[in-house]
Amino acid sequence: MLLVLGRRLANVIPTLLAVVALVFLLFSVLPGSFISGMNEDGRGAIDPAVMERMRKEMGLDDPLPERFAKYVISIAQGDLGRSFRTREPVTRLIGVRVWPSLKLVFAAMSFAILVGVTLGFVAALRPGSLVDTISMVFAISGLSLSQFWFGLMLMYLFALQLQWLPSFGYGDGGIRHLILPAIALGVGPMALLARTTRAAVLDVLNADFVRTARSKGMSERRVVSWHVLRNALVLVVTIVGLQFGSLMGAAVVVEKLFAWPGVGSLLVDSVFQRDMPAVQGCILMIVLFFLAINTLVDIAYVAIDPRIRYRR
Amino acid sequence: MRKLMWLAVSAAAMLAAAAASAQTTPRKGGTIRMTAPYAASFGSLDPHATPRAQDDIVNKAMHRTLYNWDTAQNKLVLELAKSVSVSGDGLVYTYKLRDDAYFHNGRKMTADDLIWSYTRIMDGSKGFPGARYIRLIKGAIDVEKGQAKEISGLRKIDDNTLEITITDRVEPGYYLFSGTTAILPKEEASKPDFASHPVGLGPFKFKEHIPGSRVVMERFDKFYKPGKPYADTLQVLIMAEAAARDVAFRNKEIDTSILGPAQYVAYRADPQLSKGILEVAEMFTRSLQFNPAFKPFADKRVRQAVNYAIDSDLIIKRLVKDKAYRAVSWLPPSSAAFDKTMKPYAHDPEKAKKLLAEAGYPNGFEFELTTSQNESWGLPIVEAIMPMLAKVGIKVKPKLVEATVLTEILMKGEHQSLISSSLTGPDSLATLRAFYSKTPRTAGNYTSFNNPQFDKLLDDAAQEGNADKRNDLLKKANNLLYDEAPVWFFNYNKAVLAHQPWIHGLQANPTEITHQYPEDIWVDDKSPAK
Amino acid sequence: MTAPLLRIEDLRIALRTESATYNAVENVSFEIGRGEAFGLVGESGCGKSITALSVMGLLRRPLALAGGKIVLDGEEIQDASPAEWRRLRGKRVAMIFQEPMTALNPLSPVGRQIAEMFVLHQGAGWSEAMDRAEDALRQVQVPSPERRIKDFPHQLSGGMRQRVMIAIALACGPELLIADEPTTALDVTVQAEIIDLMRELCAAKGTAILMISHDLGLVANMCRRVAVMYAGRIVEQQDADAIFASPRHPYTRGLINSLPRLGARARQGRQRLQEISGVVPSIAGYPAGCRFNPRCVAVTDICREVSPEATPLPADGLVRCHHHG
Amino acid sequence: MRMPRLRLKGGTSLWIGGTLVAVAIAVAVAAPLIARTDPVMDANLMNAEIPPGLEFPFGTDAQGRDIYSRIVYGARISLTVGIVSQILNSLIGVTLGLTAGYWGGWWDDVVTGLTNLMLAIPSLIFALAIMAILGPGLSSLLAALGLTAWSYSCRIARAQVLSLKSQGYIQAARILGYGDLRIMFTQVLPNILGPLIVIATLGMGGAILSEAALSFLGLGIRPPFPSWGSMLSEARDQITTAPWLSVFPGLAIFFTVLGLNLLGDGLRDILDPQSTTRRT
């Protein structure tokens, strides 16, 4: 297990470095700047002299390599710089967003796993049946939906028409506010998981060892619980991991729509206001989350699949 | 006869007001739930650090400035001072400060706090946006440049008396009512985490900020206006997505909501929702700014032709859904320098064609129009004018950019034309400086306007001490702009705030409708919020 | 002769697709006595495996039993309910598959996979079952079984895995063991060991064997009687000795000729082994008449038109050929 | 056991998906013939927001333009976005994957690192950054969606090369005197064409949805040419007052993406039968 972690870390660090470099370069060529953006609604009309000084203060006029070197050095010390906009340390700015983000991502993933895996299983156990067809139509429709559109529909149905749930916001951090955004975010992974699970279970059901299990005189239920479940899980875990890892980044749209105070909405806001330190911090956070989840998935593999320990 | 009518009207108004007040006396307690619609987060709760309208929604509740905009009288009033006297040359102002204003930490406000706050804003190493206002005070620039520690134009006479010396003969209220010039307590504001625990003079004190979600504030009991604020709690909820805000408002989760054109129509048509609509002509002028560096636009006739060719009224009526007032010239009607006798450009494609032909473009020309996605002054408007201009032979190539980039483009001047929204009040003189030839492009003269006659009018106005005479000069300047047509005068914004029936005391603030003085707002017991 | 342990009578297995139904296996009949080893031989794709699966009740869509009888110990089981099948499988009829790697669950220790048998059929608790699994491993001559029961299939060699399969199959002392190409995937040296092991254990327990293989030599070596299948039908059935001595069907002759024989090379010089030309036809493309006719060296007109009936041979044998003489 | 090819589920999805996609393509190709008006210039504010009826089958939008015609022309843009971005992704992915697997060494490390990088940064955020840099517009959109989702085809191409390498094919081809490029294109490429087509088909649906998401975030296509995503995004505020503004582009997106997904599934059954679980 330590070996897995070690190998993972060896992979993570160059990836992180590359992300830092890439994001830094990408956003350094972005047109517009935080300062000119302050005037976007025509209210600010900042004095040119002040703008000049702010540029200097924010180091926007330094040569690119110098800025990059400074940035990397400060990151290495755990300092992500200060937000242009709030003048707060970016670590704190992001810090308060992480928990809501994690909540949303975990809730969405729980929904996706619960519904998706169940649907996939039910469908695979009766391939070709009505249940199968309905589940898969459901799943493929889920993959064909525009996220913000679906979110709006949820809002209209469950908040406005049925009045079951609040339509937006974080509330007191309770579960009621979490449900709709989690579903909107989770529907894509749910659909994917339903399809993957179905395929995985079908795959396993056709495997030789399942035939062996049947030839032992096992009931179908036992065949599934003793032999199919775990094997299918190995395949499902891969997709869960990939989906899970990228969910924090994918939450951008949902967070914006539902005014959810996560990293994604901070990122979009920061991009549009050209708050570069915050943008870089958010992307770093999202990438870190992706890598962390993938490491966890790798560890989970070791726990589930004995072959991994000896392979590679 | 006229007077009589006026009497009748005012009597009716008074009756209505009386009826309204008789119906309800302000209830103490309850929760006000306002929305912040302009971004997905607040920039900073340190009012000095941010010029954004979004942040001022909260800052108006927690902080106070020397002056305020009185919506009822539609003019500047003293807020933190009880009286002011002005020297004969109009440059020295002596303020008698309030002796009943307390910060949320319990300390009483004194003249030192104003001096400290203004000095902080001028700290050159911080680049606070409010510096452009404080720079009016004599000696402020020296502090900004690091040549002095104190602003020489600020003098404390006693704890409750402050003398301010300014550099130009202008009304300092226009400068010192801006939210970025709020008065802060030194002992709190110099803490590094002030922005997370803001302390001010306002009617509500900070309780909680969930970044990206909301700010919650509580009633400040030692607020200087007796009996105010009414509500126990003030929540400002971030809701940038109009469609989501619509649902939340209909679902009674928020008490106020800003409306776009589409929703304005829907709310007006709804028998229930239509009762809770607050409208105001905001001091924003939406216009298409011509860049004379692009050859056709150097010709006044071409610029006029565009104004004639576009059926602005139709766009306002059908596309903007009457959520705007037709622009006549640059200054909005609420401005004292607005000439009420002026008529806007008529929709006259024939005349436009004629002007184009005279200018040497009988077959029209093509130009690039830079625009943002804004629903009221961006892409949809551009899409609407495209076919109209096509009818007189002008081909429009739209170029979509983010709102953030607009200003930068304007400053660089590499565009051919650009559609945007500009704050055009309340200080008419400052507003018209956007067309003053000595104003650099980077400071707001985005049309590179250069007209000696106009410059002269503005110079005279700046020297004129008498308000009425000054307004006359500004009126002339504004009318001159109309004829020169440096822009396509599109509209003045009509800001629309939808509110729930249980919320009362909202103000129709023409500088920004979301900026409410929350001490005047109260909710009755029908509010679903606790 | 006492009643046979297993009697297959006119077995027909259908392959149903959306557009048509084909008979993958038809007119198959044979009997296996108690403790007897019976061989079923043919190239891959001739239907021998699905015949075996039908005896286990393990045919899966699109394959299904379409006719005939399967009689186990005097009892017709072809229409048994799923629950009845479950009581038969593993307990009375067990099966070993070709590929021991994939036939074992990769994520489950082999001990547990054996122990399942005791839990399923003998109501044992897991710890008792694990002890007995260890014994079972010892019986199939796996060294240090106490350690091996915790191993996962991928940690075992191919031969070991097949021993595990045998241990599973014989765990509950079945009356019939179906071995579907049990040694095909193994090294030649291991093959003999496995065959010997099977033979020994079955002899000790009195278990009958249905041995399925493409290798006529192997089958003849192990079984008293042998049936040769081609394209879904039994084309010849004889005693093992007789089939080698006097194969009656051209296909059988072809199979025999394609076998390498000890010393044959010395006698025949560098002559190549004979092969049967062509391939087994697909189910949808069974030719009219004798199904072997396109590949037959002795084909005549009648072969292309009339399907040959079974001609009885001595000792319960039969041949299905127009020219069996 | 050799069996006749079975016609099971895959057939139905292929058929339905194919039909939906074919309709979308036909509409795009024939847009000038079947559109009733010009999608941009035929605006008449007097006709703004007319509900669907005889005169305007899908109603008109806020500008008074015929929504039907805009959807018809929008098919061109949405499909272009889908197709071109996926061609770009496939080209990049295949080139990198083939060369990385073929040459190995440091180049392989670089490509593998890049692939990991692309996987780690969510593609929507990557696309957002590119859109912000290049500014809204069709070509930016193609770049944003075409440069950010190639890791999948890259992996497949690389894996295929490695597997052929281990089987000695490439060695053999080299001995026969084939050049590197020739080997890549004649030996390797045909083997991965199937999975690639499947991925590209499914990716097209993803690209159309991403376009809608980017429009929602304010970084979509250059106006005023209609894309379904921008139409949907613009109409979202009027969902209660003028639902037809969003219903029709919404349906167009849904059915086209559904069609692409179904088609991809069906193609997978034919072209890529081994991988039942492989899915972007």
Describe it:
The complex is a heterotetramer of chains A (312), B (530), C (325) and D (280). By secondary structure, chain A is mainly α. Helix content of chain A is 77%, strand content 0%. The model of chain A has no long low-confidence stretch (mean pLDDT 81). By secondary structure, chain B is of the alpha+beta class. In chain B, 31% of the residues lie in helices and 21% in strands. Chain B has helices at residues 2-23, 53-62, 111-121, 131-134, 140-145, 173-176, 186-189, 242-250, 261-269, 300-309, 312-319, 349-358, 379-390, 403-412, 428-432, 452-463, 467-484; strands spanning 31-36, 67-70, 75-78, 81-86, 92-97, 154-158, 161-165, 204-210, 214-219, 233-238, 256-258, 277-290, 324-326, 366-371, 395-400, 417-423, 487-499, 503-504, 522-523. In chain B, the strands form five sheets. In chain B, strands 11, 12, 13, 14, 15, 16 and 17 form a seven-stranded mixed sheet that branches. Chain B is globular and about 70 Å long. The model of chain B is unreliable at 1-22 (pLDDT under 50). With 325 residues, chain C is an alpha/beta fold. Chain C is built from 13 helices and twelve strands. Chain C has helices at 48-56, 82-88, 100-103, 110-122, 126-139, 145-148, 158-170, 188-205, 216-222, 240-245, 250-257, 264-268, 301-305; strands at 6-16, 21-32, 37-41, 63-72, 75-76, 93-96, 176-180, 208-213, 225-230, 233-239, 311-313, 317-319. The longest helix of chain C is centred in the middle third of the chain and has 18 residues, at 188-205. Chain C is globular and about 65 Å long. The two termini of chain C are 29 Å apart. The model of chain C has no long low-confidence stretch (mean pLDDT 83). With 280 residues, chain D is mainly alpha-helical. The longest helix of chain D is centred in the N-terminal third of the chain and has 37 residues, at 67-103. Residues 1-9 and 276-280 of chain D have low confidence and may be disordered. Classes of the chains: A mainly alpha (312), B alpha+beta (530), C alpha/beta (325), D mainly alpha (280). Chains A and B meet through helix 3, helix 5, helix 7, helix 11 and helix 12 of A and helix 8, helix 14 and strand 16 of B.
